[in-house]
Amino acid sequence: MTVGCSGSTDPARIASCGPIVTELLDPNEGHVLAGVAMNPTYRNDPPTSGPHIGGLFVTGVQAEPVPKVTQVSTLEAGAVIIQFRSDRPDIGAELAPSAGARVVVAPATALDAAMIATGWATSMRCDRVDLARLDDFIAVVAGRYVGHGSTTTLPTSSPPTSTLPTSTLPTATAGPTGPSSTVADR
Hints:
Layout: H1 11-15, E1 20-22, E2 30-31, E3 51-52, E4 60-61, H2 68-76, E5 80-85, H3 89-95, E6 103-108, E7 115-119, E8 122-126, H4 131-141, E9 171-173
């Protein structure tokens, strides 16, 4: 029997989001200078680590896609970013109440899922909105992997062992390519 968050056995609920994936760290992780013309590449899309501008981050609901360098800076600060396909503003409207100081909600122009939640070296892809799964992701991921000092616990060249706390969410590990919270907690 496959069980989703909160012990659900409803196949529609289980299938709404994939597992939380611990991503490999981008070997190009590091600070870049603000204002310098650049077009860095990232190991993952959307990125979960990699080149970024120290101290630059966004919060709350964003009307425009967040540049990748800003996404990584925001994740380094311990935030979660929930991105939705820009051709699906209905998803953005449904996600907007989830936004806050630790959670960014923003459109994205090219996603391989209806929405993707990211944290530092962590992601979860969803084919539709599942606020309970997103709340679980936020509770497990927000505030984790803050700063470069903690990144030494995750490898950059081999599949990592998840360092996240045990959760009711399924977890997985990315290959080389590749509790519940309230709005007030965000």
